[in-house]
Specification:
The longest helix has 21 residues. The protein has nine helices and no strands. The chain is mainly α and about 160 residues long.
Amino acid sequence: MDRRKRKTQKVITVVFYQLLKKKSYEEISVSQICQIADINRGTFYLHFIDKDDLLEKSIAHEMQELVDYCEKNGEMSNQQKLEKTFDYIRDHRRQLGRLLSADKQGFFAQFLIAHLMEQMMGQSQLTTIFFAHGLVGLLEHYLMNDVSEIEISQAMERIFSSFR
């Protein structure tokens, strides 16, 4: 993709994130995004099918950032990989929480479950499925509710210790 297209997509995404800070997803329109980004609606539709496509691609981008963050430290144990996943989610809590609250299609959970299942090597498939879905539920609860980092860390530590 050329530099101009990347720049336009970045502007659209930044405006989308800014609007999510102020409004619910349902209250945001493509027209509002275009007006603030100072682009035509046609330009928006050259890059995204619709607002839902923008949301899905934004979530995919955040999940790729998570994967890159977890992979930059080389070989680690399953627990260390999961701790890195939580570190990233904690550090990006507000932004991920806004994306999650907008996500009615379950893209966030799908991407995160796939990531967690890749992180948990050496477990049976059923254990991995159970563990990944449980952690996604826990992380979604953390992102959407007023749960302290200490409380969530303790819960995750209890879960990790039961699988050692």
